[in-house]
Amino acid sequence: MTAPQHRTPEPMWNAWGTASEADPLPEHLRALLTDALGVPRRDTPSVPRDQVRIRESALPDVARASIQDAVGAEHLHTDEHTRLLHTGGKSTPDLLRRRSGDADEAPDAVVRPGGHEEVELVLRACARHRVAVIAFGGGTSVVGGVSPDRSALPVVVALDLARLDRLLELDTESGTATLQAGLRGPEAERLLRERGFTLGHFPQSFEYASIGGFAATRSSGQASAGYGRFDDMVLDLRVATPRGTIHPGRAPASAAGPDLRQLFLGSEGAFGVVTEVTVRVRPAPVETRHEAWSFPDFATGAAALRQLARTGSLPTVARLSDETETGLNLASSEVGESAPSGGCLAVTTYEGTAEHVEARHAEIAELLRAAGGSSLGAEPADSWDRGRFHAPYLRDALLDVNTLAETLETATTWSNLDRTYQAVHGALTEALGEQGTPPLVMCHVSHIYPTGASLYFTVACARAADPVAQWQHAKRAAGDAIASVGATITHHHAVGSDHRDWMVEEVGELGLDVLRAVKETVDPEGVLNPGKLLPPK
């Protein structure tokens, strides 16, 4: 068993990440907001911490005693500071509420178990006393996945898995690693690299999200073209439920009935709490190479990526921005005046041995040129790589200057990609333009498959008087547009509470009945993350 040597700094309660990484919006971008989007020049900062309203803890004494018996009194917290740090996730609506001083969603307690057995004891205690439990990893959900829902159970505890932070086993012969669920992305990668391996999973939330969170949300990292989605990497899980433990994996592949791992991958803590994950790992790359490409338009670039996916000639990273996102990214990057005007930017990355990188790059470069691409060299891709985890900080800087900024994503087949792009882009433009100023709507292809791709949208516009309602209106319009064209309501952000109303379109009424039957079997008292994943009957 290997213990990490570093701890993630305490996150900000009203913004993404840590204060040391946050920067104010550069003046040239603020001027662009006024000139291009008509955003009135007005500061909209967060309220000070001492003005935040937090409900008093309502954890009954009998439940407190049972939980303390499971984890020890020192690992049960009801103080306001700890509860505030576990109040919801990091979506724009989450942050807007807390920035306005509203933390009434705060859990009644935060519990930090020290291992699988303690998790199971806590779940049994909470089921016995009808206390809702939200599994809490890095708290990076952007779809309401860790926000308390008290409609069924009025008392809620956050089950913080931070103490489950070990690399339990590394099987170098098989290429597998067993990691505890509370281990954060950077620590997992450090521990593996020390032994010459990598997980290769780098979502934008990488710096703060946890291994358990990756599994519970079917996370997809930015290097998915080379390493696959996180759920592709999982060989086994250890899951605690109020009724006991489930260990659904045994081999790399099996025909022993339906794969029970798939019930818990993406279940968002509603069917059980993932405490350990056994994943496929690969040798750490010896060499990394970046190259950017320009395509005359989004359709041409998408066709080029489709060709790569079909042939199986894939770089480690493959990413394509539309014209609007390309213009903004290049204008604000370190590429500066040397950036090309017009077209769409694609970013590619190659990892492996020197020989593998050279051969794969040569093969893919030939395909991209034949598909209409022009190489821009390494610098635009290097610039993206240096700043790829910093985008959420820019979102928060925009919130400080009277601007609403948020993201959403979907996925569909190649033949339906343009239809989906046009439908969602149009829905967002119309819904966010109702205030009288045009929104900025950008998009990129973030993950590709032989049969289709994901689309990731980013929006920015002037804030309305009620920015939470403003975004909810736009989100509803976009979600309905996604459903109307037959795309998925979420590719990697998960369901949470924000997407649950579209689950009937995703799996049908009978499919929901199947999922509800699983829920009732493993969680008969309904204490596991209520209000998430499954819409009310």
Q: Per CATH, which architecture of the largest domain?
A: 2-Layer Sandwich
- The CATH class of the largest domain turns out to be Alpha Beta
Instruction: Provide mean pLDDT, rounded.
Output: 95
Largest sheet: 7 strands, antiparallel
Q: What oligomeric state best describes the polypeptide chains here?
A: single chain
Number of strands: 20
User: What general form does the structure show?
Assistant: globular
Strand fraction? 15-25%
How many angstroms does the end-to-end distance come to? Answer: 44 Å
Report helical residue fraction: 25-40%
CATH topology description of the largest domain: Uridine Diphospho-n-acetylenolpyruvylglucosamine Reductase, domain 3
SS content category: alpha+beta
Give the radius of gyration: 23 Å
Number of domains: 4
> Main sheet: which strands, in order across?
17-14-16-15-19-20-18
Low-confidence stretches: 1-6
Number of helices: 18
